Amino acid sequence: MYVTAYPWPMCLGAVYDAQPDRLFFAVTREEEGEHYEDGNRLMSLATFYDEYAKAPEDRALSAEQIRVDAATAPFQA
Fold first, then answer.
1. For the segment 16-27, what is each residue's pLDDT rounded down to a tens digit?
2. Domains and CATH numbers, the chain
């Protein structure tokens, strides 16, 4: 599989799911970061991996688990 830059975690997860024999990339995340700006209010390319590594309750994006009856039912065989 060929990609322009080393994948972000979500994309990397899809790559692992696809199970290619090998991954080829042109630039590192750091090299891409020299030219990348998307105006994201929650993180930047430079801070994404630090943000991603935090526990959900410590991230810039507020997240709260809600309780739902039989919430795991769709995952059961």
1. 999 999 999 999
2. 2-65 (3.40.140.10)
